[in-house]
Amino acid sequence: MEKQNAIEDPELSVPINNLWDRMLMLSIVGILDSRRTQVVMEDMLNRIHDVEAKVIVLDIQGVAVVDSAVANHLMKITKATRLMGCSCVISGISPAVSQTIVNLGIELENTVTTSTLKDALKFAFDKLGYSVTRKD
C-alpha cells in the first residue's frame, strides 16, 4: 500500500513556514488525531532536516479541543524535534486548554509553552541570538 502524502489529503496537511534562518513555524488548525499527527511529525522532521532548523514554533491556537490523546501527540512531536537538535515552543495555549491539560494530569516536562505567538517568537529569537529593532 502506498503511503498517502499530506498534499494528496488536504485535511491532513499543515503548512510549515520558514520564518527566519533556522526558524520554522507550524500552525495547527482543527482536529489533531493520530493519523494527522503522524503526517505532521514526518513533514516537520523532514523540514527541520532540510533547512537545518534550530527552533520550531508549534502554534495550537486553532486547536479547539485538547484531550489526553492530543496532549500526548504534542509531547511526541516535541520529543522528536529535540532528537533532531531543534527546540520546540508550543504557543497559543488558551486558558481552557491550559486547564484541561492540568486537569488531565499531563506533564509537559522540558516543553516550552507560551500563551501567545508573540511570546513564542521572542523565545525563538532569543534562542537563536537574534534581535529585532524598530526603525524610527
Describe the structure.
The chain has 136 residues and is of the alpha/beta class. It has one domain: STAS domain (Transcription Regulator spoIIAA). 40% of the residues lie in helices and 20% in strands. It has helices at 34-51, 68-83, 95-103, 117-128, and strands at 16-20, 23-29, 55-62, 87-91, 112-113. A five-stranded mixed beta sheet has the order 1-2-3-4-5, with helices on both faces. Strand 4, helix 3 and strand 5 form a beta-alpha-beta unit. Helix 1 (34-51) packs parallel to helix 2 (68-83).
Question: Which keywords apply here?
Answer:
single chain, 136 residues, alpha/beta, Transcription Regulator spoIIAA, 5-stranded mixed β-sheet, 4 helices, 5 strands, 40% helix, globular, disordered N terminus
CATH topology: Transcription Regulator spoIIAA
- How many separate helices? 4
Number of domains: 1
Question: Poorly predicted ranges (pLDDT <50, ≥5 residues)?
Answer: 1-7
Q: What's the architecture, going by CATH?
A: 2-Layer Sandwich
| Mean pLDDT figure | 85
Helix content: 40-55%
The CATH class assignment is Alpha Beta
- Summarize the helix and strand pattern as letters: EEHEHEHEH
The coarse silhouette is: globular
Structural class: alpha/beta
Task: Draw up the topology in text.
Blueprint: E1 16-20, E2 23-29, H1 34-51, E3 55-62, H2 68-83, E4 87-91, H3 95-103, E5 112-113, H4 117-128
Parallel strand pairs: 2-3, 3-4, 4-5
Antiparallel strand pairs: 1-2
Helix pairs in contact: 1-2
